[in-house]
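# nightly structure sweep
# worker-07 picked up a monomer target from the shared queue
# config: single-sequence mode, recycle default, output format = structure tokens
# input follows
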Amino acid sequence: MKIIFAVSVAIGSVVWSCYVGSVLWAWIIVPVLGLPTLNIIEVLGVGLVARAVTGFQPTTDDGKREGESPGTRIVRLVATAALIPFVLLVGGWILKSFLL
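# output follows
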């Protein structure tokens, strides 16, 4: 059951991040540079290419914190996966209002 939940959260996180990336692209890159819009799949492809070019850096941090229970860790990781793209989306919306 935990595996299904983890895979679901990972897929949801990727889709959410790609959606935010496509919206930010449409709000900022299209008007500034005149490039075409990107859909979620195209943003995923651009992200994969960017990751391949910059390299896969192994992290030394395993995400664990002193005295943190596994349930608390999962909640923190899920909240981070949801909130960081949301904060970027809000920041992009504010920036977009200055571009118009």
